[in-house]
Amino acid sequence: MNTAKSEIRDYFIAILNEDDGSLEMEPHCGKCDAHLNEDYFCENCRRNCLCLDIYCETEITYTKVMELIEGQERFKKFRAFNGPKK
Fold first, then answer.
1. Which of 56, 58, 71, 78 is deepest in the core (most CB within 10 A)?
2. Of the candidates 28, 4, 6, 12, the residue with the CA atom closest to the CA atom of residue 77
3. What is the DSSP annotation of 9-67?
4. Is 69 exposed, middle or buried (0-12, 13-18, 19+ CB in 10 A)?
5. Beta strands 47-48 and 51-56: pairing type?
6. The whole model's pTM is what?
7. Closest CA to 79 of 7, 19, 22, 18
8. Helix or strand or coil: residue 79?
9. What b/e string do you get for 6-23 counting C-beta neighbours within 10 Å, with b at 16 or more?
10. CA gyration radius for the chain?
11. What is the pLDDT of residue 6?
12. Which helix H or strand E contains 82, and what residues bound it?
């Protein structure tokens, strides 16, 4: 799936909680990279964001995210990336 450079892709940064093994997803605006609140509204850009990309900082996190994407129908529109957003 190729993405045009001009296309804005909002995203999550996935973090694995070392205490209990759960995934924590931090939403970010794809236009300005600002951290988003629970309503996914970017105060900087004044826009509603839709996070469908997931950046995983570790291989273990990436594996867990891929299990979710491949194992549950509701996550089929998401894309996972192994490594930080560049």
1. 56
2. 12
3. -EEEEEEE-TTT--EEEEEE-TTT-PBP-TT-EETTTTEE--EEEEEESSHHHHHHHHH
4. middle
5. unpaired
6. 0.87
7. 7
8. strand
9. eeeebbbbbebeeeeeeb
10. 13
11. 63
12. strand 79-82
Q: What is the mean pLDDT of each run of 10 residues along the chain (86 residues)?
A: 67 94 95 96 97 96 95 94 90
CA gap 25, 47 in Å, rounded: 20
**Can you tell me which residue has the tokens 């004044």?**
46
What one-character DSSP code corresponds to residue 80? E
Judge whether 82 and 55 are in contact, CB under 8 Å. no
Q: Please say whether the beta carbons of 61 and 14 come within 8 A.
A: yes
Q: How far apart are the first and last CA of the chain?
A: 17
Calculate ∠ Cα 25-59-41, nearest 5°.
Answer: 20
